[in-house]
Write a structure and sequence with these properties.
Chain A: It comes from Microtetraspora glauca. The complex is a heterodimer of chains A (517) and B (372). Chain A is α/β, with parallel strands linked by helices and 517 residues long. Chain A is built from 18 helices and 20 strands. The longest helix of chain B has 30 residues. The chains are: A alpha/beta (517), B mainly alpha (372).
Amino acid sequence: MSEPLTNAGRPLLKLAGITKTFGPITANEDVTFDLEPGEIHALVGENGAGKTTLMRVLYGMYQPDAGTIHVDGEQVEFRKPSDSIRYGIGMVHQHFMLVPTFTVAENITLGAEPGRAGLFDRKAADEAIRKPMSRLGVDLAPNTITGTLNVATQQKIEITKVLYRGARIIILDEPTAVLTPQETDELFVLLRKLADDGSSIIFISHKLREVFAVADRITVLRDGRTVSTSATAATDPKQVVAAMTGRGDVNLGRVHRDAAVADVVLRAEGISTAKHRHDAALDGVSFTVRSGEIVGIAGVEGNGQSVLAEALIGTVPLTAGTVNLGGREITGLGVADRRTLGLSYVPEDRHLEGIPINGSVLEGLSAGRLRSRRSWRSWGRAFPKAMRAWGSELIERYSIKTPGYDARCSTLSGGNQQKIVIARELEENPSCLILAQPTRGVDLGAIDFLYGRIAEATARGCAVLLISADLDEILRLSDRVLVMYRGRVAAEARTSETSREQLGMHMMGAKVTETAA
Amino acid sequence: MSTSTTAGPGRRGILRRSGARGPGRATTRLASAGFTLIVGLAMAVLLIQMQGFEPFSTLAAGVQYAVGDPTSIARTIAWGLPLYVAAIGVAIAFRSGMFNIGAEGQIYAGAMASALAGAYLGPMFTGAHLALCILAAAAAGAGLAGALGWLRAAWGVDEVLSTLLSNYIVILFCAYLATGPLRDPSRQSGTTREVVDTARFAEILPRTGLTGVVFLVVALCALGWWLSEKSVIGYRWRMTGESPAFADAAGIDVKGSRIASMVASGALCGIAGAVLVTASQGRFWTEIGSGIGWDAVLVALIGRARPVATLVWVTIYCVMRAAARGVEQVSTVPSELSLILISAIIIAAAARAGVFGQFAAFRHRFLRTKGR
């Protein structure tokens, strides 16, 4: 970390009074943000706080309804991204904009290729990308095919792309979401080096630990407004969380649970699957989860965690191995039977699998009750008064913010949508709960609430398998943690006896220890 | 996180604007229907004007012919009865994500089955004979559509293709039966034998063609609406159609729902064929369907597979067809022009109802060739 930059004369970039509305929704209201030369300025806030809107305004993707943008003291108006690129603003998107089959040189120069008459001048391109690549310490042959590189390197290609276009201001949108802890640290070193060289960086994140590790200043947005801007050294995570959520009581440490760990509930033995979509195939995965216990599954995305969840609930078939639930083999059973036997599942992709996104809240809540109704009763009414009352009661009990049980799920925020899923799954009173990325895209206040409900479930004796890309989440909740690497369990440890760094090593497959289930 | 979680509305599922129950939607829909009718009216005025007739009086005569007095209303409704049943059937399949465009074929299969049951069984007690004819038709349609639904559920054979192609197989096979082995020898054209009198619905209003089958049609429409919109079965079907991945993860029997909804859809389309035979034609002949199955598909699309909206659109469609016949009688505006008019109105309605978006979704499905 470096000294905070509070002095200096005129800022490199100044956004003042930015207001942007979409119909009845105000995404940004009178937002102020500035950036000094050579500074890393973090922009934090919950989902829907207006971070992305603000950056899209800056990048020329949206036109603000009010407010001004100054670059180097000159008032500018960005009508499209190419305008802002001309003023030296570059954006590294969360989802990479790289063509996997192109070479590194082709990707970096894409859209601003050297050469004439529509011909790609390979030599000139190789020459042109040399300097930005060396600035980042990327040592790659320009003709390497991009798709063969790992995620962290691809991210560096993205940053190179921005530098190649001559960016002085680099916007990074959630850049660490796809990285391991070690890769994250490397990225931070790199960002610091770029800042020391004179680039200015806007770092968008909701992970406070990272913000405090890398940023010089922190600006917090809440509900579309600037809540605070302060030097990192002059504030602390508690204050920032309070600013983000508007509450002073959000717990950031380990979640308190009083659950007695008892008998084995879920036992997977040597389970394997075929390759499924983008995820690695499972290759002989074995583990147990006990009653009252939370077992975390850590790993870089794409190492088999998603398939593991789907194989356990029964939407992906096994090619080998067995799954036992409460002493009963469920290997060959379908989803409905597994659920009837006490398995519950919070899927990773909320919009596709968690809720009927265009259906009503009640339709999302009631799947568990309507799934198993048999024979002639299925001809009866799906939502009689009793069912609607039950739905209203759940909305109340899980404090789901919705106009009513018949509101469309798609109109709810991520946190409230996830509460629908959690409410439905916990109401089935499961003996084992599989959570896949349970708090992705969920705001801090709702996370607090969801963790509380999960802790209550374990106190009732529920066994929980927590699959998460967020190591903090795993460290805060789980008793044991398994690390997955290329479809295998690469390591297992008690949470109290391991560290983020150690887990990170295993996540990269650096050291494969003996697997013990 | 903000960018990653904003998935587009309904990346899967055909009828994505489903489950909408908020206030204000009804008015939007009414406005949409109004827009369509105005476009249609303007087109009609233009076309009639071009033929050198006074547009408004000509149109008024057409409307008079369609809904001018109780007799004409009854006649218009009688013509539309099979369409009501078929459209509800198609809508039910759409709701569960099964694009059953084999309605025409299922209507032919049902018509053939009921014509055979009506001609070769009996005479017997009328109620029983009619029930037999209708059950035979339902079974034929249900078997046909159910088999195609099973192919989709079990083997991933896209039902858009299979139902479309099944039309030609079924219609041509029925034509073969009607012109070959089952032909009525006393007639020149390709028809089966006339059904016995106990297999015909009695007219309830003289010289309107409106028979007792109207009660059956009302009951079937009510049943279809209940099944699709209110019942637990309908909930499973709708979830399967709108959010198949959600339904799967929630433990809803997605394959079973797909097959069952196709069975229900095929049964209703088959019954529509039986209505044609037992309530008006009295026998199967090679052109008996006259495109009612295609009309049903169109109307269900315009009604976005909502049973009530679909029924309203069937009514509008029937009035339009009857009015076109009326216009034809009082002017030299040929029936071809009225067909053009109807097509234009349907296109306008389709544009409003987002049908083109739905077709884009189908194309997308083909290009990705990912059978779920």
